[in-house]
Amino acid sequence: MTFKPGQSGNPAGRAAGSRNKQTLAAEAALFEHAQELVENLVKRAKNGEPAAMRLAMDRILPTGRGRPLPVELPPVRSAEDAQVAAGVIMDALKEGALSAREAVDLINVVGALTRLTGAIEYIKKIVRREVARSAQTLGLDHFLAARPYLHDYERRAPEMDADEEAAETEDDELPPHPDEAAAVQR
């Protein structure tokens, strides 16, 4: 017998949403003795048993992810700011205000902010250089509000031009193709 597409191989199988008989029996037994179990747990927690205390506290005051953290971080705009923020996070971890997982999450946030800040600074630097170069080329340098960048460009323009010329001459000095070398020898 072959299976047909879209048809179950066992149409009389377990119904969707049905539960295991052993699971149902265990839940029924626990439900019958739930009051006794809770009273026993509370009594053991009051006597100072660490496992019972932890279980009781986890049920009374669960610590969920995404809760507001009691740490005030400084703004992160540079690597030095990131070091200060990491110090604040480590101090909060030592004091017990943060769990290890929360500290790792915050350190990751600080790292991402540091990378973002570096990328923004790099983009600003490139934009300033290109604007100054374009203004110089078009003769509109007197319209620039950020005049100091233009002076920096004027100072470095011969150096940049020399680098570009060196790169162009390197490209011109490629070895001839073997076919071309053979044609020249004939």
List keywords for this structure.
single chain, 186 residues, mainly alpha
The largest sheet, given as strand count, sense and whether it forms a barrel, is:
none
Q: What is the mean pLDDT?
A: 79
- SS field, number of helical segments: 7
- Mind telling me the C-alpha Rg? 36 Å
Shape: elongated
Proportion of strand residues: under 5%
Number of strands: 0
Q: Can you describe what's shown?
A:
The chain is mainly alpha-helical and 186 residues long. It has a domain at 79-171. It is 68% helix and 0% strand. It has 7 helices and no strands. The chain has helices at residues 21-32, 34-46, 50-60, 79-95, 100-138, 147-172, 178-185. Helix 2 (34-46) crosses helix 3, helix 4 packs antiparallel against helix 5 (100-138) and helix 5 (100-138) crosses helix 6. The protein is elongated and about 95 Å long.
